[in-house]
Structures are given as structure tokens and as C-alpha cells.
Amino acid sequence: MPSKRSLKESIRYACGDIAGECLLAKMRFDDLEEDKVENIVCRIALLQTATIDKVSTKFGKKCSDFADAGAYRKERGKYFKEYYAALWKEFEDDIENIVEDMNSMLTPEQKEENKKAAGN
User: Fold this and answer.
1) How far apart are CA 120 and CA 70, in angstroms?
2) Which letter, b or e, does each residue of 45-76 get, where b requires 16 or more Cβ atoms within 10 Å of its Cβ?
3) 18 contacts 99 by C-beta, under 8 angstroms
4) What pLDDT score does 120 carry?
5) Phi, psi for residue 90 in degrees, rounded to 5
């Protein structure tokens, strides 16, 4: 499992990159609605804040609740593994929804131009 610091850093980079792409698209295509772009950037910022806040969690049990320290570590590890997998899945789903909204703002001509620029 990566450290909390690197997980938070990854979240910040991903959100920053996506917000940057959204703003670049606004500069590149003049006919995009500014309100929609601003709304998406705000959603990205809120997603970043909410996800980073969820990274810091605690295991709700004590070592004394288990038969031995090994059982405690095993259960604690399982808890964090499942928690962070669910957190990352939720983050990815939210990002996917945001990207879909970003793409829905583009006209078919703009989408085709982007595909050509990307070499697809």
C-alpha cells in the first residue's frame, strides 16, 4: 500500500491535470460555455478536497480487542486495503463522470480534431 502522502499527491496531480485540460479546452475552443467549464473545474476541486479528506481514516479497533498482535495486524491490514480500494474506485468513477461531462461539451468536429491531434 502506498503511503498516505503519496496517495494524496496522486489525487492532487490527477485533479490538477484534469482541471488544466478543461481550462486548455476552453482556451482552444471559444464556443464552449464558460459556466459549464467553471462548474466542472469546481466539481474537480470539490472532488479533490473530499477524497483527500477521506484518505486519513482510522481502524476502529484496538489491539486488545484481538487474541494477539498478529491477528490485530492482519485485520487492520485487511481493513485498510479494502478501504483504500473502495476509495480509489469511488474516485475513479467520479473522474470518469467528470471526463464524460467534459467530452459532452465538445462538438463532433472538435472531437474529431482532437483525435487527429492525438494521432488516433
Assistant:
1) 52
2) eebbeebbeeeeeeeeeeeeeeeeeeebeeee
3) yes
4) 63
5) -60, -40
